[in-house]
Each structure stands twice: as C-alpha cells, then as structure tokens.
Design brief:
The strands form two sheets. Strands 4-3-5-2-1-6-10-11-9 form a nine-stranded mixed beta sheet, with helices on both faces. It has a two-stranded antiparallel sheet with strand order 7-8. It has eight helices and eleven strands. The chain is of the alpha/beta class. The chain has helices at 28-42, 60-65, 70-94, 116-124, 142-152, 186-191, 199-207, 222-227; strands at 8-13, 47-52, 99-103, 112-113, 128-132, 157-162, 167-168, 180-181, 183-184, 211-216, 234-236. The longest helix is centred in the middle third of the chain and has 25 residues, at 70-94. Helix 1 (28-42) links the parallel strand 1 (8-13) and strand 2 (47-52). The protein is 37% helix and 19% strand. The relative contact order is 0.16. It is globular. The chain has one domain: Carbamate kinase, CATH 3.40.1160. The protein starts with 7 loop residues before the first strand and ends with a strand.
C-alpha cells in the first residue's frame, strides 16, 4: 500500500481552475474531478486543509484596475472564495468525505468561523477543513491566506495545485524550452520572480521554514504521486 510522505497539508487551489471550458464560474465536471483528486490523498490518511481562490467569480485587483474601491473589491473577492469553498465542500461530500467550511468573514448560516482549535479537532475526526474568506482583511491575497492557515495548523507543507507540473524558469505554456526545477530555494524563487506564490506568502514560508510544493491538479493522479514522494512536481525550501 502506498504511504503518504506528509501527515498534514494545506492545499492551495486556484479559483480559475474551476472554470473549465465555460469561461466563468464553476464547471461541475472540473469540480467533481477536483474532489476525486483530493479523495486520492485523503484515502492515504492525510489531514487536509484547503484554501481556494475566487478568481473564477471575482478578482479584486482586476476590479481595482477599473477604478473600483480596492477595499470593497477585496471583500467581494473574499466572498467569491466562500462560494467556491461551499461548492467544493458539497463535491467532497458526494465523494463520501466529511468536510467543513470555516470563513474568516462571519457567515454563521452557511459556514463556521475560523477557529484553529476547532479545525484541528475536525482533522482528528477525519474531516477536511476548507478555509474561506481569505485572511478576512483587504490587501492580502489567498496565497497569503494559504500560507497563514498552513502555519496556524502546523502543516508539513503547503501545496499549490495548479495547471502545470512544477516550478519552471518561465511559463512552460508559452515557452516549450522552459526548464523545470525539482527543488529550488525561497530566495531563488524571489530573485527570479517565479511567482510560485505572492511575495508576502513566500516570505512567510521562508521565515517559518514551511515547504512549498507545486504539482498539477489537472493531471490525474499527479497530486497523489507528489504526496507519496514520487519524483513529480517541485519543492521550494
């Protein structure tokens, strides 16, 4: 039987990844496949916290560029993450996994409030915890929220599950000669401006010695391969 390399992880998902081919919102098939990929590592006994972005519904920075108030735009983006989190929770439940959503913005009718001690209790009971609402403050991205939650739950690693299979020196979609790094330092990521996570999140991870993993969520089994220590994806440490 395959064995997980990590006991507890924080999985960072992109909201844009849920769009699929429809261009906006949540593609039910993509949502279903995402839940199946998460189930693949859940079945290994891994304790899983998740932070998901809201860019498939609303991006605060894009709205700001169009002369919208930055603070209000950021709060709208946080609300979008709650929508995605509730959708993912339901998809996980359809896979037979208990999941709860904790929001940094109080919404008692539909979510719990973020309480780390309760989140740790959920992990012990075999539940996945989805952290919504960012940090609850404007000016901070979901990357930073993911790093913060990973630190708070004492995760072994924060894993960015994205559309590519690791960290490259340039965009592999645009540059077929892009070079992949199996391992790379925090400093090199910052110096090379590789945008694994935003600068604040990477700095947080570096200061707290929190490893960052990058793997492909869209490639079936890639996340599980990474979790079990196979030579897939990339690690920043």
């Amino acid at each position: 039987m395959e064995k997980a390399k990590y006991k507890r992880i924080l999985l960072k998902l992109s909201g844009e990844a849920l769009v699929g081919e429809q261009g906006y919102g949540i593609d039910p098939e993509v949502l279903k496949n995402t839940a199946k990929e998460v189930k693949g590592i859940y079945d290994l006994g891994v304790q899983i916290g998740i932070v998901i972005g809201g860019g498939n519904i609303f991006r605060g920075l894009s709205a700001t560029a169009k002369n919208m108030n930055r603070i209000e735009a950021d709060y709208m983006g946080m609300l979008a993450t709650v929508i995605n989190s509730i959708a993912l929770k339901n998809a996980l439940q359809r896979e037979g996994i208990e999941a709860v959503v904790q929001s940094a913005i109080p919404m008692n009718q539909v979510t719990e409030q973020v309480v780390i001690s309760k989140a740790l209790s959920h992990f012990k009971k075999g539940r996945i915890v989805i952290f919504a609402g960012g940090t609850g403050n404007p000016y901070f991205t979901t990357d930073t929220a993911a790093a913060l939650r990973a630190g708070e739950i004492d995760a072994d690693i924060i894993i960015k599950a994205t559309k590519v299979d690791g960290v490259y020196d340039s965009d592999p979609v645009k540059n077929p000669k892009a070079v992949k790094f199996d391992k790379i330092s925090y400093i090199d990521v910052l110096n090379k401006n590789l945008r694994v996570l935003d600068i604040t999140a990477i700095s947080f991870c570096m200061e707290n010695k929190l490893k960052i993993g990058v793997c492909n969520l869209l490639k079936k089994g890639h996340l599980k391969s990474f979790i079990t220590g196979k030579k897939t994806g990339s690690i920043v440490e």
